[in-house]
Write the structure tokens for this entry.
Amino acid sequence: MGARVLLVGMGGREHAIAWKLRQSPDVDEIYIAPGNAGTAQEGTNLQISPTDIEGILEAAQKYSIDFYLASMDDPQPLGLVNRLTEYGIPCYGPSQEASQLESSKAWAKNFMVNEGIPTPAHHSFKNYDAAIEYLNNQPDGALVVKASGLAAGKGVIICDNHADAKQALNTIMLEKKFGDSGSTVVLEERIFGWETSAHAFCDGTRALFAPTVSDYKRALDNNLGLNTGGMGVYSPSAGVTEEKMQEIREKVVEPTLKGMAQRNMPYRGTLYPGLMMSQKRGHPQEIMQVLEFNARFGDPETQVLMVRLKSDLFTICRSAVDSLEGMTIDWSPRPAVGVVIASGGYPESYTTGHVIKGLEDVDPGIQIFHAGTQRKGNEIVTSGGRVLTVVADGKNLEEARKRVYDNIERIKFKGSFFRKDIAIMEAKS
């Protein structure tokens, strides 16, 4: 009899993971709390909030869950892995203590400094007046203002000047737009360059890497508009050589695993550092710096990675609970592009309940991963900001991109929008 696997979340990431788990001969049942219309095609949705730890525990017992695969950020800082482990359920994901790498940007920044992991200069503040005083002493106010806690990928505000930075502090600390997640803020040196992320499957001491992925955070074309949870991705990232991957391993991931083990909080699960390759004045070469750690799979990064993954996802994650020694992971050499279709107004206010048309009209081999969707009768309707991620691979990035955009135009709902420039420059180069 195969495994009964639990996922927690409702995004395109969870749909992609469930879709990949369904391909494993060692997986019998998949339960997703709360899931969406897409995950319902791969397993059984459970109407439980991702933050309802007691409800999830009850469901794990009720459905005889024998493996938990952590995908989203919320449950781990609330102690879900710790609690499930107490019940004897193997978990691929970080403990409550280890998840501080993401749940507290202030803690993570201190960790990086202590372990010699390259990261932009920064200061943390719990007091608004102290943060303002620090800001006023900066020459131009060009800073990145971050809510220290979890904010669904939206708690980062990039500022060009003092006025922008002050407004960001007001938004986070006084207006409390991100709730308690903004009780501590991080003011970070703004650096310029290009971003990439490197997902790694970790067993506490070892790491096996996925291909790199580049994410487009801004809502609108040409990197305009507000920051979002991610509007599109492509993989592999342009410019990430084997030498750079070795640098990521030696300067970021291995020191992280070593440092966490030394603190008696070994890191098991998916770790993906968000990285910036930048050039500083007086430095002729690119400098790699960690912007932040993510203690889980990325969204929408996971959607393209699952399309490129040829190995059995369940086997990888189950092995990581014990040891990844001797394991290799097989990835498709074909590049992939993913584009998010969002509700009009996202990432701010938007309406839901709009019927989605054209899902059956896409070409074979095009993967549609659901996020903000639910089924009402015979129809699938919108229920969130990011609604769908459409993914295609190709013999090269240009072909993958063409396949995505040829098909995404066929999918319609009221107010829908998507960026039209995902990987456009990289496909031309």
